[in-house]
Amino acid sequence: MSTRRKLFPFWIPLLFGLMGVSRIFANPRLAAIRTVDIVQLIAIGMCFGVALATLVTFLRRPRQGLP
Q1: What pTM was estimated for this model as a whole?
Q2: Is the pLDDT of residue 63 over 70?
Q3: Do 30 and 24 contact (CB within 8 A), yes or no?
Q4: What residue spans define the domains of the chain?
Q5: How far apart are CA 20 and CA 64, in angstroms?
Q6: Tens digits of per-residue pLDDT, 35-59?
Q7: How many whole angstroms separate alpha carbon 44 and alpha carbon 9?
Q8: What is the DSSP letter of 61?
Q9: Sign of CA dihedral 52, 53, 55, 60
Q10: Which of 1, 9, 10, 34 has the fewest CB atoms within 10 Å, counting from its CB?
């Protein structure tokens, strides 16, 4: 049961991401998006992902005692 509890938060952002992707693919303006724009959006998403992962790692790290 503990394995299931650890994986549960992983599915929430994945579900929202898949809903967003499905909404974008249904948009007829998708054909007008240039490759450069897609690469830029992927890079921005990766940067936000790294920043969020770093923040979570920083907040979950055990705190050291005050000197």
Answers
A1: 0.55
A2: yes
A3: yes
A4: 2-60
A5: 40
A6: 898 889 889 888 988 988 888 888 8
A7: 22
A8: S
A9: positive
A10: 1
DSSP 17-43: HHHHHHHHHT-GGGGG--HHHHHHHHH
Query: pLDDT, tens digit, for every residue of 5-26?
Result: 555 566 777 788 788 778 877 8
Closest residue by Cα to residue 37 from 24, 22, 52:
24
| The amino acid at 4 | R
The pLDDT, as a whole number, for residue 38 is 85
Handedness of CA 12, 45, 42, 28 (dihedral sign): positive
Element (H, E) at 60: helix 35-60
Alpha carbon distances (Å) from 45 to 1, 5, 6, 10, 11:
32, 26, 24, 17, 18
